[in-house]
């Protein structure tokens, strides 16, 4: 007997009420759906706009059960849900995507590095230190790869937090001891000579279909991404294809369902090394909201619902995304007035604000600029930086006076 298709609208729930959930909700609306979110409070970005909100904690099993009740898929806007809680949900029949077995590779940098090593995937040389009695291994590692070293907290770091550049071996030992004292293992890597950072964003469905967006260049300042250029300028076609194929292979090997962002180092000799990855929509993919046929947020929903994946081609030769970061001092000019002045000068700016209170260095929005000619990239980047600075500070960095 032929199965009768269900007339029920699919329901996706997302753990986390941040800007990624907010923008996923925007994509859900276009698909005739309503995203349910688990938010810590009613003033979080997604909770402000979603009609189906569960207030609770991602570390509380009962709150996770409440948000997961009756949904077709449970997914994430961050990776901080304890693995053991997700495994309990899976045992109770919840469709957790990506699965706990996949997600742990984005939660724990040591687990990730060991799996990459087993897969013979390119990455910086590393050592894991999980207890004080293994500090001697750090000395041997430093003797083998040299200094300086990069010391990372194995769990919990983001936006530059939990990542420190060690000046020498003594400094590396000090940072490692600090992490261990907090109960967090340390990942120590060689510091590679890099020319820039790249990101390969892909998506994978339960059916096994994969899709890859153009590889982008990310520009970091103080450990925080400030700008993304799509596609990465002057990246050879074979290197771009290599990065896409690597990300798709990892998605398949790890069993990822949804969006996977693979952050890469391009070294001075042209090699590509894996830095980290995220199994959710990612800051390096915000350009897709305006510059691609299918945004990363729509694609993530398509993937977790096992829909056919969307076209990932860029719709213009170049897109530049600039993050809007909270200024050291909140401007006297209200954000709405800043937006008014921004549009008056740069009417082609595609602004996405998150509804977040402004704090120094906090991501409160992003702006996309679409370019019709890759030759105009320098000007496009300057305009994106100018726009982001104005929205952050309420002052034009070039001294422009609208009344002059």
TrEMBL record:
Transmembrane annotation, as ranges: none
GO molecular function: 5-(carboxyamino)imidazole ribonucleotide synthase activity; ATP binding; metal ion binding; phosphoribosylaminoimidazole carboxylase activity
Annotated pathway: Purine metabolism; IMP biosynthesis via de novo pathway; 5-amino-1-(5-phospho-D-ribosyl)imidazole-4-carboxylate from 5-amino-1-(5-phospho-D-ribosyl)imidazole (N5-CAIR route): step 1/2
Pfam (any one): PurK_C
Keyword Cytoplasm: no
Keywords tagged on the record: ATP-binding, Ligase, Nucleotide-binding, Purine biosynthesis
Origin superkingdom: Bacteria
Keyword Nucleotide-binding tagged: yes
PANTHER family in alphabetical order: PHOSPHORIBOSYLAMINOIMIDAZOLE CARBOXYLASE, PURINE BIOSYNTHESIS PROTEIN 6/7, PUR6/7
Listed HAMAP family: PurK
NCBIfam families according to UniProt: PRK06019.1-5, PRK06019.1-6, purK
Entry protein name: N5-carboxyaminoimidazole ribonucleotide synthase
Native source species: Mycobacterium asiaticum
Gene: purK
């Amino acid at each position: 007997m032929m199965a009768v298709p269900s007339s029920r609208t699919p329901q996706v729930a997302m753990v986390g009420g941040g800007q990624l959930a907010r923008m996923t909700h925007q994509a859900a609306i276009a698909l005739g759906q309503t995203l349910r979110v688990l938010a810590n409070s009613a003033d979080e970005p997604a909770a402000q706009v979603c009609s189906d909100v569960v207030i609770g904690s991602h570390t509380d099993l009962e709150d996770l059960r409440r948000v997961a009740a009756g949904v077709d898929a449970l997914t994430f806007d961050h990776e901080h849900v304890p693995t053991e809680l997700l495994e309990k949900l899976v045992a109770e029949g919840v469709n957790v995507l990506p699965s706990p077995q996949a997600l742990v590779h984005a939660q724990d940098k040591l687990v990730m590095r060991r799996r990459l090593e087993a897969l013979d995937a390119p990455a910086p040389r590393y050592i894991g230190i999980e207890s004080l009695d293994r500090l001697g291994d750090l000395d041997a590692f430093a003797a083998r790869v040299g200094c300086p070293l990069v010391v990372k907290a194995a769990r919990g770091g983001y936006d530059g937090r939990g990542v420190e550049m060690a000046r020498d071996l003594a400094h590396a030992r000090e940072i490692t001891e600090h992490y261990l004292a907090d109960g967090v293992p340390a990942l120590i890597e060689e510091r590679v000579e890099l020319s820039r950072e790249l990101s390969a964003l892909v998506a994978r469905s339960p059916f096994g279909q994969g899709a890859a967006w153009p590889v982008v260049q990310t520009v970091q300042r103080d450990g925080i991404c400030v700008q993304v250029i799509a596609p990465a300028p002057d990246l050879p076609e074979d290197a771009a294809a290599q990065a896409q194929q690597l990300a798709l292979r990892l998605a398949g090997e790890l069993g990822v369902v949804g969006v996977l962002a693979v952050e890469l180092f391009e070294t001075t000799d042209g090699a590509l090394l894996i830095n980290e990855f995220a199994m959710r929509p990612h800051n390096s993919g915000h350009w897709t909201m305006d510059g691609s046929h299918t945004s990363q947020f729509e694609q993530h929903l398509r993937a977790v619902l096992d829909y056919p994946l969307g076209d990932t081609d860029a719709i213009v030769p170049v897109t530049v995304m600039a993050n809007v970061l909270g200024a050291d001092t909140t401007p006297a000019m209200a954000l709405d007035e800043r937006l008014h002045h921004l549009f008056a000068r740069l009417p082609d700016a595609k602004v996405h604000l998150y509804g977040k209170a402004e704090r120094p260095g906090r991501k409160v929005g992003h702006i996309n600029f679409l370019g019709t000619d890759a030759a105009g990239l320098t000007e496009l980047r300057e305009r994106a930086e100018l726009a982001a600075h104005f929205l952050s500070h309420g002052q034009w960095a070039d001294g422009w006076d609208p009344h002059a």
